[in-house]
């Protein structure tokens, strides 16, 4: 474990985007805790320090925990005295008009205006948070930001080189077992010659070099690979701009044993030069399982 724990306290006006922020910090590799009672914080720090595994924590605090605002300044003072925790406060804000609009849209009640006027609750909350806002190292006005734009700002401000914020999942599958429901991009390679009909390849897979070479060593396969890979490379930056943290590319053949496996392997290894990549073969052992059951 590093010597210092990176702690980000996410707070701000109700309706300003704390839920989006917490989800973004999860994608950034932070251990996120939503609305922990202040009385449990000392024990939580002890457990974090003893674990030796958690290095980044995002603590989301809002008006569901009224006691927090009575204790936050004492807690921050104690944290400032220790070398174990490096603390930053992220304060999310928006104009009163925008907050009213968001509450009207969601039809939710403001925590400080359960039985009164919405604007009265917003004004009370803003007054309560003035000192904390002044103390925050990072203040983001979300008035004119979409959730995607807020994610982008947080990624730029808090990402670390040790935790990439975008990665690829490259998967092979068999159409006879169904299309993966979590796929973003699906490609069919059943137009290629099928190694299943070559006796010495039938019980092998696209991970075996002779089968891989059989699939790839023809002009149709090479032309298709170059065009498909080129297309994927051109659109990945656009997925990143849209705030996607992962893209799943699913490549299918009939049984998910030969052609799709070979192509997923080649595509995944090519992308691994530029992105973190996980390569999986969903149905590679399905035929073996069927034979064993019969």
From TrEMBL:
Chain sites annotated for binding GTP: 62-65
Domain of life: Bacteria
Residue ranges occupied by any RapZ C-terminal domain in the UniProt entry: 167-285
Domain RapZ-like N-terminal: 5-158
Pfam family, one: PapZ_C
Keywords annotated in UniProt: ATP-binding, GTP-binding, Nucleotide-binding
Cited InterPro entries: P-loop_NTPase, RapZ-like, RapZ-like_N, RapZ_C
Designated name of the protein: RNase adapter RapZ
Species per Swiss-Prot/TrEMBL record: Lacticaseibacillus mingshuiensis
Gene from which the chain derives: rapZ
